Amino acid sequence: MAQYDGKRVAITGGTSGIGLATAKLLLGQGCRVMVTGRTKATLDAVSVELGGNAIVLESDAASLNDIDRLADRVRAEFGVLDVLFVNAGEARYVPFAGMTEAMYDESLAINAKGAYFTVQKLAPLMTDGSSVVLTTSIANVKGAPTLSAYAAGKAALRSMARSLACELAPRGIRVNAVSPGPIDTPAFDKAWPKDVAEQTRLRTAEIVPMKRLGRPDEVAKAVAFLAFEATFTTGAELVVDGGLSQL
Q1: Which of 93, 104, 116, 150 is labelled catalytic?
Q2: What domains, with CATH codes, occur in the chain?
Q3: 150 assigned to active site
């Protein structure tokens, strides 16, 4: 029997990077996993990659209607949830002076508002003793140019981990956060042209005390720990950043 055999897990933003690595890890440990994403081509590819044990659902984490549909699908497929990994997020590199209201609203909608209501809508389906894990970022404590709106959303999410942990504690539901630093995910390639992305990887690795970028699977292991093993931990944030925010 696998370590987490039969546990029911929902992962928002689960079709690439950290979310996809977590889905693979937990599927390998016997979990039943539902992942969400926004792009049909990616959803189709991930559905093949993960195989028949995963449910792949098109869902926009910033849309309350889509969050309602996600809750309905979880209820229909699983009945209840053991783990909710709220991982969907988006970093836009926009200088403070060039930030528009529309860009700001879009960033906060996915990184803070969407996460908040995802927990609200799915919490009623969670079993007593289950777990919520939120993806924050070291940007919530470490200033960085062009990431002001993103950082604000992630700082809000860090605060939510504490307040939602308080509200859900009477049901025995733990709420924690994983805080990645620079992780080598497709986000680099989405943000910049190929040559710029590669140079950014190299420059970023140089400023990390461990002199490399993190891997998605390293964050996935931290998520699994918070989700299943950290049974006396709630309201906490586990940093996975090679020491960048600590040293």
Answers
A1: 150
A2: 8-185+215-239 (3.40.50.720)
A3: yes
